[in-house]
Amino acid sequence: MLEFLSSPSAFLRAMDVGIPDGVAEPFEAYWQREGLATSAALDRAGTPWVRQFDRFGGRIDELLFPPAYWTMLHTSYRAGAVWRALEESMPAAYAIGYLTCYYDVGLYCPHTVSLGTAAAVAKYAAPEVRERFLPALLRRNDAVWQGATWMTEARGGSDLGATVETLAQQTPDGWRLTGDKYFCSNVGAELAVVAARPEGAPPGVRGLALFLTPRLRSDGTLNYHVRRLKDKIATRSVPTGEVELDRSEAYFLGEPGHGIYHILEVLNLSRVSNSVGAVALMQRALADACSFATGREIFGTKLIDQPLMRHQITQKIADLRAAFALAWEPVRIAEEVWREPAPRYSERFQCFRVLVHLAKYWTAELAVQAAKWAMEVNGGMGTLAEFGVERHLREAMILNIWEGPPHRQIIDGFEALERKGGYRLLLDHLTPYADAALLEAHRRRLEAHFALPADQQAAQMEDIFSALAQFTAAALASKYPALSMA
Fold it and tell me: How far apart are the C-alpha atoms of 289 and 376, rounded to whole Å?
């Protein structure tokens, strides 16, 4: 019963999603053999630490993880969580991401930000910069370079136009960055794409630019310093720290005046990853709940055989299918549009952007609810760290905040729905899968909302956005096979 829940590859196959040949079996075998134990040990150990100096006083900023961590991390790099996106397809790469997140959702963050880095370099770096750095990001062995995406500073991340103070100065020797980045995931990466404001640029988002910053300067010394690592509630498998940039060497990406588009492209790829990871976490939480319910007997009846529990599981499986459909649609469309140059985006890209916000918002919320429910099914055992069920809830809460919390997704999503005409593009996209009367009802509701005064629009956004996300998920779910407890 429910074999598709206990294996991420079985679930993807049940949903008719292709997995690259020769990947699933060895990948899952590694995780069952040693990856799960490594992941659990890292979570229990808490925040890793950074060795800032060598014994002679030289600054090295070395992240200290046990060797098993690097084995766990490189498993997904070798399988193609990054290189397949550029050399095969986005869906192939995100399938590897799904497999990874089922076992450790935090571990997928390094692969996610490395993919964002690689995509930005492939699209926007000068030819000589691309030829120098991109091959290292696409290696298929343990010598692969990692990437990172550093936008946020201490005053916040949602309003980048007001909060990014990192200064970019053009010198005879190239660009130099000076400033502090506050939330730097994958802080030990060899390369990072960094939001900064060129000297003399206008205020607001129009003055931002995206830069590629190596970990090492051209002379081999450190190009930035790690002030400290963050003590987070979860996702200990990705090191997050604070970075000090002090005239750090950097390379301009893209065209002047278009930096905010480049930044948002990177963020949107990460939001796609976040949605995929949220669904994988949902599946894992459901699998843990069903495993416990199968073994637990209450008042002479197995918990899983009790009518209320069976009804709840049936509903959670339906939620999982709909969440996957909503998350996977941006994956499919990303393959078509990710190479489109900013800001000359097609209508297909604008539809992609709407779907990204809807998926990130709704799948993250469903992941929290699924993780909470799994704890409830396990009862007191679900609250104990030694059994790992409570970890799903801790990590789901991170997914709700990474790459913009729900509030941000709603506001940015409505901007895309209204100003970019995205609601028409979305509803047209859903026409083959949705009831015509429901489509028209959502169209009328959205148009009536857009006609409201600005303050009233803002106050009522969430109800409209939530209903639209659920409707979109349900419509897209019709594309996928039904799943059941049988």
Answer: 9
Q: Strands of 101-173 (E only): list them.
A: 149-150, 167-171
pLDDT value for 486: 65
Strand partners, 193: 149, 212
Q: Give CA–CA dist 287/268, Å, rounded.
A: 29
Listed residue (433, 389, 382, 323) closest to 315, CA to CA: 323
**Cβ contacts of residue 378 below 8 Å, gap of 6+?**
288, 289, 292, 387, 389
**CB atoms inside a 10 Å sphere around CB 131:** 10
- Whole-number pLDDT of residue 46: 87
Interatomic CA distance for residues 381 and 375, integer angstroms: 8
Q: Determine the pLDDT at residue 1.
A: 53
Which conformational region is residue 379 in: left (phi greater than 0), alpha (psi within -120 to 50 degrees), or beta? left
Give the Cα separation of 329 and 40 in Å (integer). Answer: 32
* Domains of the chain, start order: 3-137 (1.10.540), 149-257 (2.40.110.20), 260-477 (1.20.140.10)
CA 340, 257, 187 angle in degrees (round to 5)?
Answer: 75
pTM (2 decimals)?
0.96
How many contiguous H segments (helices) and E segments (strands) does the chain have?
Answer: 17, 11
Q: Which residue has the tokens 């949220």?
A: 278
Which of the residues in the chain have pLDDT under 70?
A: 1, 486
Both tokens assigned to 13? 């196959």
Under 8 Å between Cβ of 117 and 211: no
| Count of other CB atoms within 10 angstroms of residue 460 | 12
* CA quadruple 182, 185, 188, 191: dihedral, nearest 10: -90
Rounded alpha-carbon distances, angstroms, from residue 218 to 59, 154, 196, 211, 221 = 16, 29, 21, 16, 8
Residues in the chain, how many?
A: 486
Distance (Å, rounded) from C-alpha 275 to C-alpha 361? 8
Please answer whether residues 118 and 149 qualify as being in contact, where contact means their C-beta atoms are separated by less than 8 angstroms: no
Asked whether 241 and 398 are in contact (CB, 8 A), the reply is: no
User: Tokens 């990001």 correspond to what residue?
Assistant: 137
